[in-house]
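Fresh eyes needed here. Have a critical look at this protein's tokenised backbone.
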Amino acid sequence: MTDLDLAAQTRLSELAGRLKETDPLAIDTDLFIDEVKSKVRDQLKPKPKSLSTDYVIKELQSVSGEHKHRVVIRSVGTVQHIGNGIATMSGLPMVYLEELVTFPNGVQGMVLNLDRDHVDVILLGPDMGIRGGDLAEATGRRLSIPVGMPFLGRVVDSLGRPLDDNRPIIPSEFRYVERIAPGVIARAPVDTPLYTGTKIIDALLPLGRGQRELIVGDRQIGKTTLAIDAILSQKGTDVKCIYVSIGQKKSSVLNAIETLKAGGVMNQTTVIVSSPDDPPALRYLAPYAGVTLAEFFLDLGMDVLIVYDDLSKHADTYREMSLLLRRPPGREAYPGDIFYLHSRLLERACRLNEENGGGSITALPIATTQRGDISSYIVTNLISITDGQIVLDADEFNKGSKPAIDIGASVSRVGSAAQEPAMKSVVGALKLELSQYEEVARFARFGTEVNEATQRQIDRGQRVEAVLQQGPHQPVRMEDQVILFYALTHGFMDSISPADISRFSKEMLNYIHNHAAQSVDQIRYRRELNHETKDELNREFTDFISFWEKKVKRTS
């Protein structure tokens, strides 16, 4: 109703209420108001100007005259069976798919199955108080959730209801949960980087705004940590973040929320929680609610990062619902439309062109494997939908490599197209060096004698691995990554033992920030390495290595 002035809005509400009081069966208030809004918007399309009150009142009178002679027949059904969050009903002759149905206890449900003699409804709340024989009424509306800027900094459920405290959230508008993804013409190429703060990802598997990158691996090896670190690294940027928890333990969700608060990014983040004890419908709707909120920011021209943790549990929830709805099971008992379930979700992540606002939604879906099997059904579905995958290896994790990313199996299909010139110039051959090191290191493990050149390659590979190591929730800024990789690729770390790389890196960054602040600012704001910056970095690196060697001699 933002197109109407205050007098028109007041007149519309009064007239709808008066018609409802006169004859409750003769008018459906919601349909009446929706029809007026539709007529107003149609008038606005040719010339987007504010409407006068006189014109709106005239339209109201014409619509109300039409409604006087219209009889609205509401569909009513009878509950035949209730249980496991599913209600099987008879009746409801005029109901349609995804329509909301209201039960006597006030709980609503959404129609998911239309059969010849019955209708299946998934409950959006507890089934307590609903019994066989109860009457339920169709509302004539589809499921919509509240969206708006006030959701930033809050923890909500799949229907937008606050879970963090009793403070109400005043939404900007309501949006349908299901929406068709933007078309190809409305999209723009993915070429703007989105830094995750994880060195190995930003250097070797770069992400762009509008990309969909799958994070896949076994349980408890750092998938959620990578996603949370990506949110933490957005501190101080204009990127809005949404973390969707699907069936995760409440203790894990609380830890994630505390980490976001401690990292100072909660004020630009919304957490959507669907716990294991929620009805299946809420777990099913959680990721769609998240992307619906993300699209609100997208339409305002903003950039959004959304994490789905995780879609394996989402698929399990849909399988549970489908079997309860008596849908035919397919591979691994998943229904036949399980691919469509996630494709219509992830296709809504995109980058729009300037004519459509220029915003973007970057999606980081998470999937769980069993014993590292990335060829399982749901994982291969998601790999085919997304623009690359980050594969975590349990063996590397158990050896102490963190993050335990398998470089050989991981890929970003956007690649260097979404890298800044400064980063691209210092990591060009890094992935090749790391792959070659892994090949020759296998032979060295068996005690095979290697020549001097091969030994140098192994030593360099060990230093590259040491530089890429990173603790949890310690995101590294882009300019610091460029400085580290510049020092590594230009030989300034060749004399440092791999065991000392971590301490050397921290002290070197502090030294560069204090003695070459202009170069740091050049990298941060210009996003490039010019000759003056390189010369200054070379001088400061040489001075710091001399200082470091003297320090090591004193301590030894």
